[in-house]
Amino acid sequence: MQKKKDPHIHRLRVTQTEPFSVLRSNMLVKTGMTMTEKILAGASEKSQLSPGENVWVNVDVLMTHDVCGPGAIGIFKKEFGENAKLCPRFCKDSYFSGTKVWDREKIVIIPERYIFTSDERANRNVDILRDFCMEQNIKYFYDIKDLNYKGVCHIALAQEGHCRPGEVLLGTDSHTCTAGAFGQFATAIGNTDAGFVLGAGKLLLNVPPTLRFVMDGEMPDYLLAKDLILQIIGEISVSGATYKSMEFVGTTIEKLTMEERMTLCNMVIEAGAKNGVVPADSTTYKYLEIMSEAMGYGKIKGSSIFLAEYRFDVSKLEPLVAKPHAPDNRALARECKDVKIDRPYIGSCTGGKIEDFMAAAKVFPASGKKVKVLTFLVPATQKVWMDVYGLQVPGSGGKTCSQIFEEAGCDTPANPTFGACMGGPKDTYARINEPMASYPFLLLNFPGRMGHREGQIYLASPYTAAASALTGYVTDPRDFMR
């Protein structure tokens, strides 16, 4: 394993050309700001912002799910009761007609945590969401009872068009930062803040300073974005970006797909970051199926001040794992070959996208072997689940992911849910109910994350997870991909 290098940290002025526009009040923000500062300036209707300023930010999207939603709803009803008055400072309309949310079309509610369970309290939470959405006529409620159900919130938000460049998305989940892949300011908030946003449509935020990560070089075909973010977190530690924005640029980033950018931004919270962001570009707009001109976006030149800059030559990186019990407990996969594993798991918001399953499906045929341990597959959304069964894997002779997984001896892909990633009730599919070494392509590995407190959780890319499933030990994917 390469020795950690102390990064050269200083306030750095960097000239950059980034796509950006503000779609509020026809106001043009000044240059000289980072992406996060630009977005928050537009959302607060200010021409200029600096790190450390407190500003009232207009919210474009508020997301909540079945774990936090009931609490946020309770606070909203308590604080914005029948005919509650609002100060004009918070809302242009001084009065509500009853207890109504600020905008029923800007709220996204997704039950997806503890849903496939007989646990009465978990089911009660979903009932609370259902009643509230009916009462408030919430437009974007993705119920589990009908075909409108989507799956894991962070992937569903992107698939359903709720992630848009230049906007502000707040969510009651730590990995709301995933949406930063779209050039959006996306961050987590607590139930109290969410209750306030439900009524007021805005929130007081402190503008974070920005760390810039420049990733250049040709990315080897045995690496994925999960390796990149584990490299970064191992470099700066789990507290290295506390209440800071992490901005990702460079030739490597420009070549990443949207789903890989989502993996990158998803895990910035594991470094303590307020948010992560990738400037929107042609890859972003192609994913969204829109033209940049249609959104009013263009190129502007400016000089931005970053708290620190980190540079990586991606061509020199190797497959990584994060050992228990912290995402910064970084090690080379090849150095952990004696670590026996009991349960590979590919799923969750970080590892349940179609490209993650496509990556795993490339490893199994290359080996010509069957898995040595029970391997769980949990697509993030209904769309991903259908793609696992419907899309052909390139170079496989026309086989789908599901066919390859079946031939390799993996468990049948399960219904989309986030349950096992958070432990969930004891009857949750793939939950760890006894001490074992799990090898999930997840986002967190602290004690008890997947259930049992003595479970040993290793984090890795889907390439490494698939290779390890074939041997029963932590395995460098290059052993099967050369």
From TrEMBL:
<dbReference type="GO" id="GO:0051539">
    <property type="term" value="F:4 iron, 4 sulfur cluster binding"/>
</dbReference>
<dbReference type="GO" id="GO:0009098">
    <property type="term" value="P:L-leucine biosynthetic process"/>
</dbReference>
<keyword id="KW-0408">Iron</keyword>
<keyword id="KW-0004">4Fe-4S</keyword>
<dbReference type="GO" id="GO:0003861">
    <property type="term" value="F:3-isopropylmalate dehydratase activity"/>
</dbReference>
<dbReference type="InterPro" id="IPR050067">
    <property type="entry name" value="IPM_dehydratase_rel_enz"/>
</dbReference>
<dbReference type="GO" id="GO:0046872">
    <property type="term" value="F:metal ion binding"/>
</dbReference>
<dbReference type="InterPro" id="IPR036008">
    <property type="entry name" value="Aconitase_4Fe-4S_dom"/>
</dbReference>
<dbReference type="InterPro" id="IPR001030">
    <property type="entry name" value="Acoase/IPM_deHydtase_lsu_aba"/>
</dbReference>
<keyword id="KW-0411">Iron-sulfur</keyword>
<feature type="domain" description="Aconitase/3-isopropylmalate dehydratase large subunit alpha/beta/alpha">
    <location>
        <begin position="334"/>
        <end position="472"/>
    </location>
</feature>
<keyword id="KW-0479">Metal-binding</keyword>
<dbReference type="Pfam" id="PF00330">
    <property type="entry name" value="Aconitase"/>
</dbReference>
<dbReference type="InterPro" id="IPR033941">
    <property type="entry name" value="IPMI_cat"/>
</dbReference>
<protein>
    <submittedName>
        <fullName>3-isopropylmalate dehydratase large subunit</fullName>
    </submittedName>
</protein>
<dbReference type="InterPro" id="IPR015931">
    <property type="entry name" value="Acnase/IPM_dHydase_lsu_aba_1/3"/>
</dbReference>
<feature type="domain" description="Aconitase/3-isopropylmalate dehydratase large subunit alpha/beta/alpha">
    <location>
        <begin position="51"/>
        <end position="331"/>
    </location>
</feature>
<keyword id="KW-0456">Lyase</keyword>
